[in-house]
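Exercise 3.2. Students should predict the tertiary structure of the chain below and write it as structure tokens, then compare their answer with the key that follows.

Predict this chain's 3D structure.
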Amino acid sequence: MLARMWIDTHCHLDAPEFDADRDTVVAAARTAGVHMLVLPAVQVADFARVQALAARHGLAYALGIHPLYVDRAADEDLERLRQALVDARDDPRLVAVGEIGLDHFVPGLDPERQARFYRAQLKMARDAGLPVILHVRRSADALLAGLRRIEVAGGIAHAFNGSATQAQAFVGCGFKLGFGGAMTHERALRIRALATDLPDAAPVLETDAPDIPPQWLYRTAAERAAGATHRNAPAELPRIGSVLAALRGWTPAEAAAQTARNAFEALPRLRTLCAPAVEGAA
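Answer key:
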């Protein structure tokens, strides 16, 4: 039955790019066969909005403070996150702590503050018994060092673009690796090689919508300046999944089934949330 169900493990449905047509975006995803989206928050101010969207549309969510938002966050936001996790502990739609992590690519960020927020949020996830959704951008080794010191219940390394050795280390820590639009670009050789060679139990699918558009939606900077858009959307996930299937020698149905199983292992609460969709597909 899972062969008929795609899961988008990372979608920022609360982003302003969806303000004009959010309900239509969700409906289009479901029509395309995407029956579950995971909505990770990026800052405390967004928690209530993400929770409300998940409840309204029958989706899942995660709560966390993104490394790109750490410099603008107050120290007290960590306590606000801790309390939000306590308040939502019985909400089945809360599936992870995220999006958290480290970003060593964007210039001007405070690395020590990022590291402090990362460690604090790992501890919260550990105490809550929740997996984490990790932002990994030129930071794989530092993230892994944190995971070795503070053990959590696995999770997903989102938009993974590290080495094969780093990929194996995340898998060894109980993590799945997220693949999305970047994998569809023919020049993304390392990502495509990882997507091809990882064990079957490692990959999950994601869009990161409205970001990381697949190749067929990508527009150059000049095209965007001229008014062309390249907003990504969760309805693109089956086509992204078909690229993964082609790389691995799977059928699209096999890709949907395997990545759904992997998503359930990474974020166990998803299984119960998706049960009605699985039963309906039967």
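Discussion points: The chain is about 45% helix and 15% strand. The beta strands are 6-8, 34-40, 60-63, 94-103, 132-137, 155-158, 175-179, 203-205.
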